[in-house]
Amino acid sequence: MKNVYLDHAATSPIHPEVMQEMIPYLTEHFGNPSSIHQYGRRARKVLDDARQTVASSIGASRNDIIFTSGGTESDNMAILGAASALKEKGKHVITTQVEHHAVLHTFHELEKRGFDVTYLPVDQYGRISIEQLKNELREDTILVSIMYGNNETGTLQDIQTIGSVLDERDIFFHTDAVQAFGLIPIQVDELKIDLLSASGHKINSPKGTGFLYVRESVPFLPQGFGGEQERKRRAGTENVAGIAALNKAVTISQAERKDRYDQYVNYRNRMKQIWDEQGISYVQNGSAEFFLPHILNVSFTEVSTEVMLVNLDLAGIAASSGSACTAGSVEPSHVLTAMFGTDERTKSSVRFSFGLGNTIEDIEYAATETAKIVKRLTK
Asked: Which residues form the signal peptide (predicted)?
């Protein structure tokens, strides 16, 4: 049996070159970057080099980059750090119903702290209405957080228009770019993005690495306390080995971005072509026009998500529902529920996501086995 990993949106394998870059900082170069001796200076250079690499990848200033443990911490820091610094100006904040839980649960926390949160709905393709966003803006609106590309459906939001709308009204704009970074070209000045979250383990760096971009003009209060690392914005000794790895991963992802994009679009199209040839029933979830290339979310409407995932796993195929598994059952995704309500497709969705190590042969195998499973289960 062939094993095929198609869950790269959950986590990705470490690139071999990234691993090699990391090893010396786990062994011989172990210094604390806050130390002034040669061991510390060598570690400090790793941080400085990586900060410049990350900043250049999004058109930012190196001083605006904060290294974090990943997307969740970056989202938490961005939202809580900005909102707490701006609360005297206003307590109205806006997000969407389809954000990652790292964002949604942080906004729930803001509600507990007395903030007024607006959760924007989305259409059947997972996109917000720009007009509705404009209508929800108020004099006391201080922060809007809208994800770049959805982690379940791959749907892209109109970040450039959103950024322009908010910039005209002097409202700060945060975007969770965890899935988009490395595949979609991002220039924070052009897009009017004030805060941006990204994660290393989605771009073939180890888990526990990531960064937060905070524009210098954004009022920001740290959410952790201790030393003065990261320009007093994130206390704690930096993960030097992880940051060295992140530096390499960002460098590779930027160099290969266009080729990866085209490759993953080809994978998406090939999967759907095989399903069409096999004559199985499925419906694609998300936008067919505005999408992340590596995520393909489909509903096999006659087969439940849980049954489908178990059978895929037995066939050696790792995929995902993109939703939470609890008590032996798969709950309908909050993203798909926001898009479709109680429609049956929310209970039969599967997310295939592509990445490093996948080949066209893998995709053809997975698509063919998926078709066999659907046919067997719908006899």
From this structure: none
